[in-house]
Write a structure and sequence with these properties.
With about 350 residues, the protein is an alpha/beta fold. It is built from 10 helices and 12 strands. The chain has helices at about 70-90, 125-130, 140-150, 210-215, 215-230, 235-240, 250-255, 260-285, 300-310, 335-355, and strands at about 5-15, 20-25, 30-40, 90-100, 105, 110, 135-140, 160-165, 170-175, 180, 290-295, 325-330. The protein has a 5-stranded mixed beta sheet. Strands 10-9-8-11-12 form a 5-stranded mixed beta sheet, with helices on both faces. Strand 5 and strand 6 (about 110) form a beta hairpin. The chain is globular. Bound molecules: zinc ion. Zinc ion (ZN) binds near residues 203, 205, 207 and 210.
């Protein structure tokens, strides 16, 4: 290439339990383009699992990757589309980051994923690198979201930040003492599977009564369907096309944001559960700020305000602990994808420094 070098950009992909969001991000954190699709062929996470997973063809020398749902194909397609868009923005894509919903080990393999059991054990970075010809890094999706908000968003300049993604499940991203905390194996922050009640409802992780069974977007939808099946929540059911079975968490948050009192009450009971788990985490971490991310972040103050109120109520936080501010992610539901792009940029910067 002759003349001035194109500006640097990276691509971030957030693979959620339900949706896949891909963004093209400039080195300054500007989101230049984004694409969204459903995660292919999602299994019912509570259904019995088929252990005999088919194995995908090796892609040009890489070792075989279990990709029965075409996850690697789907991510590679989105990355390819964004690489094309990079030309329009006169930027050069130098790497890809992928946030995955589960336990991502230091070796980059997905060691466990209650909401994505099909992809467990897969070397997604290796397979994607081969497919796209770009350097690929992977990390936990909530850790990615925390990185985005700490570097570029609501947690900028802070040293101790607790970010919680609330979507299909719940995950936490931790900034402790001015650094992203990943734990000994890279598994830190699986807050959604803190057990709130060992006799509670079954969780895709195999245990009972996990926090995310009460406080996730999925739990919100479940609770709303239960109430709607008894004739309530008319405004929410209307948003789901009049079908009780089609009611999801976002229908509740949409109705609550439009001022519907019934939906607001359901969202408040979710906020109570969120605050209870956050209080447990704050007892451990002593964070200075709580950031809500994931699909629920789209509800903005409709969820952040009741969570902050409940957290500020006497007896919720440990005694003598002052209330902690609760805000929604600056990047909203895109925080995980933006953070994945940032992860790729920082990995690239480290490589450049080492030259
Ligand atoms: Zn669980």
């Amino acid at each position: 290439v002759t003349g001035a070098a194109a500006a640097t950009a990276t691509i971030g992909v957030d693979v959620g339990g339900t949706k896949l969001l891909a963004v093209l991000v400039g080195a300054d954190g500007t989101v230049l383009a984004q694409r969204q699709r459903l995660v292919p062929q999602r299994q019912d996470p509570l259904a019995p699992r088929d252990r005999r997973l088919p194995t995908a063809k090796p892609t040009g020398g890489a070792e075989p990757v279990r990709d029965p749902t075409g996850l690697v194909d789907a991510v590679a397609e989105e990355v390819g589309a964004l690489v094309q868009r990079a030309g329009d923005h006169r930027v050069k894509v130098v790497g890809v980051g992928v946030g995955l919903p589960g336990l991502v080990g230091a070796d980059g393999r997905l060691a466990g994923a209650p909401h994505l059991p099909e992809a467990v054990g897969a070397d997604i970075a290796g397979a994607l690198g081969t497919r796209t010809g770009l350097p690929v890094v992977v990390d936990n999706d909530a850790t990615c979201a925390a990185l985005a908000e700490w570097r570029l968003g609501a947690g900028r300049g802070r040293r101790d930040v607790l970010l919680v993604t609330v979507g299909t499940g719940i995950g936490a991203g931790l900034v402790v003492g001015g650094a992203v905390a990943r734990g000994a194996l890279g598994f830190a922050g699986e807050a959604g599977h803190m057990v709130m009640d060992p006799t509670g409802p079954p969780c895709p992780c195999g245990r009972r009564g996990c926090w995310e069974r009460y406080a996730s977007g999925d739990a919100l939808g479940e609770q709303a369907r239960r109430i709607a099946s008894h004739g309530g929540l008319g405004a929410v059911v209307a948003r789901a096309g009049g079908q009780v079975a089609a009611v999801r968490g976002e229908h509740v948050t949409d109705a609550a944001m439009a001022g519907d009192p019934e939906a607001t009450a359901v969202l408040r009971s979710l906020a109570d559960w969120l605050a209870l788990g956050l209080a447990n985490l704050l007892a451990l971490l002593d964070s200075e700020l709580v950031i809500l991310a994931g699909g629920l972040a789209a509800a903005g103050s409709a969820v952040a305000v009741p969570v902050a109120e409940q957290l500020g109520r006497k007896g919720v936080l440990p005694a003598d602990r002052p209330p902690v501010p609760v805000v929604v992610a600056r990047f909203g539901p895109a925080a995980g994808a933006v953070g994945a792009a940032r992860l790729a940029l920082e990995a690239r910067l480290v490589l450049d420094e080492g030259r």
